[in-house]
Amino acid sequence: MKLQARHAFPCPPEHYWDMYWSDSFDDLLMEGATYDREVLEDREEPGGVRVRRIRITPHQDLPSAASALLGASKLVYEQENRFDPAKGEVTWRVIPTILPGKLDAKGSFRIVPTATGCEQVIDGDITVAVRFIGSRIEGAVVAEVEKSYSKTAEAGRRWLEAKHA
Prior knowledge:
This protein is of the alpha+beta class. The chain has a single domain, classed as START domain (Alpha-D-Glucose-1,6-Bisphosphate, Chain A, domain 4, 2-Layer Sandwich). 33% of the residues lie in helices and 41% in strands. It contains four helices and seven strands, in the order βααββαββββα. Strands 1-7-6-5-4-3-2 form a seven-stranded antiparallel sheet, covered by helices on one side. The protein is globular. The termini are far apart.
């Protein structure tokens, strides 16, 4: 299932990237979060590509039926983000801790300049190869990812306003 979203920011692309990698922005995102976020790896590769791998652990347990089906009480996953500053793009992929070989989630987002600042353009693909219910799970995951990007964009605008006011 395709994932697509766009979010406008009232700043030049370089301010967006300063925010994205800022510890204070991470702190803002974690205020009231319903999950724990752990940075497992943060390194730079040749060519200036920055690789950050994180683990997301929701506070809430899965419903019992989903838990029995998946064999896990929480939907814990890892995500690897690769930022290429030359392209102004982050590519991401989810590394599932459940449904090995049945869940594939990957995509990218780039920041493009606009007349009033910049825009985050998100494209992704989420595939769940589970018979009968895969497409329902895909729809739920896409909805959650879109909601997460929207909340992050709102927090980003607040951070930028406070930082660059």
